[in-house]
Design brief:
Length: 398
Amino acid sequence: MRKYWHCLRQPYALRLLAVNFLGRLPNGMGALATVLFLRANDVSYGRVGAVAAVYGVCTAIGSPVLGRIVDRRGQSTTLLVGAVGSGAGFALLAWLGGSSFPAALAGVAVAGFFMPPLEPALRSMWPSVLPDASTVEVAYALDTALQNILFVAGPLVVVLLVGATSTTTTLLVIGVLGVLGTLLYTANPPVRRWRGEQRPRHWAGALRSPLLVVLLAGMLFVGAVVGVFNVATVAYAERTGAPGFSGVLLGAFSVGSLVGGLAYGARSWSGEPLRRLLWLLVAMAACTWPLVVVADRPTMVVLITFAGLGLAPVLTCTFVLIGKVARRGTVTEAFAWVTAVFLGGSAAGSGAAGAVLPHLGLAPTFAVAGIAATLAFLVVLSAPSFARSDSEAGADLR
């Protein structure tokens, strides 16, 4: 853990990570809290699904839009406006969403679109806070690994809040947490001082970088792996007569990702990050395919844990690459696009799994995850290699 302690001992590093994580809690809470609220108000599953879809789509759209504004205007004002807007969306849902379907749609649309891009903002902040590129990579690894805790802690906090209060109060608390975390994050001097590099305006923004587009396409398929597991694990648990076991499997996947991310950050890496990403994607695909055996429950826990080992390292290495290839003045937007395509890939993976499962069964459904992981490797394999050193290539691409 020496490299992590060195990273966290840097001025502002631990504080920025902690308050940013607090502000990101709504990312892991909003979807489940919305579903529970609507069901508590006897909203049909069909309408619940539509509301959940609108929330996911608006979150995916809003993240790069707000990220582009952050690059132009700075972090503080944009993030605070987003947090207040998202909180207002959750308040609208809590106030009228239980009795009015249009109000529910409007509430989640506003809450999702204005969700402040705290995760991309922090990643664009690290190079100005930390002393060297190696420490920045450690921060990326730590941040990505902790994201797995968010996916587990968010739903748990929702369940506890609903049990202690109500679904309506839970939605209001989510909005307050987002505003509070964003306030604490933007109160730090490095955040107030941060400004994106000046650049000519262009409608494509960060997507002007061809290599970035290739990386995003690869991350779309990585997200699809997670989306397949969201459906396949539930079906496996029902088939084995233990409906709650899906949570164990998804938890094991998150633990594997956490361990993999921490192990990745603890090592010093040399060589081109693009080549390293290709090897990580090969390893991820190799660890995903064995799930097609659909073994007994203990074996599946082991297999899905191994499948999770590569997720955080793949994302961390991708963030390192994006920091190098993003065009000048678009780094926050570029990081936000990763979030957007990952969410889109996850939704597509869930949809594909839902289409395959009723007709072909569990093994082919898990095979969809293996295919997605393999396609992620093949897509990134088409990316151009750096002709010179990473820094020179990054400067040229800017």
